[in-house]
Amino acid sequence: MERADILNEQFVSVFSDTTPPTTYNELILNAKMNEIIIDVYAVHKQLVTLKVNKAAGPDGISPRVLKELADVLAKPLTTLFQNSLDKGKVPADWKMASVCPVYKKGEKYLAENYRPVSLTCVTSKIMENILMSQLQTLC
Q1: DSSP secondary structure string, 89-120?
Q2: In the chain, how many domains are there?
Q3: To 10 degrees, the CA torsion angle through 99, 23, 83, 130?
Q4: In angstroms, rounded to a whole number, what is the distance separating the alpha carbons of residues 55 and 66?
Q5: CB 57 within 8 A of CB 122
Q6: Contact 125, 93 (CB under 8 A)
Q7: 87 domain-assigned
Q8: Which of 3, 63, 91, 119 is the most buried (most CB within 10 A)?
């Protein structure tokens, strides 16, 4: 517990939560979000190309489960993703991350020689990838 607290203090000390002001390009991007339609094919494609050896996120859903059930899950996930996009909200679980320290270099007993890595939900990454590809085609 003591080690976790030390690493947490280090990560908090180097973290910045200042949000830059909205730019003109961000306003244009937000307007284009209304044009995005998530289709079942895109979701299914993302599901079947998942790497099954990757870790599950904080929700505990393994990429292997998502990949093996791609035919069944594509439609409900498409509905969930589109509703989330339309309402401008994502499930609270998707905002959670498991933060793990990864050793960089130097003395292993110094907290500053570790960097934080966030493990997030696989389903949120799927939606993120779909949105990124859609936005790239719109811009």
Answers
A1: ---GGGG--EEEEEE-SS-TT-GGGEEEEEE-
A2: 1
A3: -70
A4: 12
A5: yes
A6: no
A7: yes
A8: 63
Q: pTM for this structure?
A: 0.75
Does residue 79 fall inside a structural domain?
yes
Residue 118 resides in a domain: yes
Calpha distance 94→90 (Å, rounded) = 7
Buried b (16+ CB within 10 A) or exposed e, 91-129: eeebeeeeeebeeeeeeeeeeeebebeeebbbbbbbbee
Residue 32: how many CA atoms within 13 Å on its side-chain side?
A: 15
Residue with tokens 């696989």: 122
Q: Is residue 32 part of a domain?
A: no
Rg of the chain over Cα atoms, rounded to whole angstroms, equals 18
Amino acid identity, position 20: P
Structural domain for 55, as ranges: 2-13+37-138
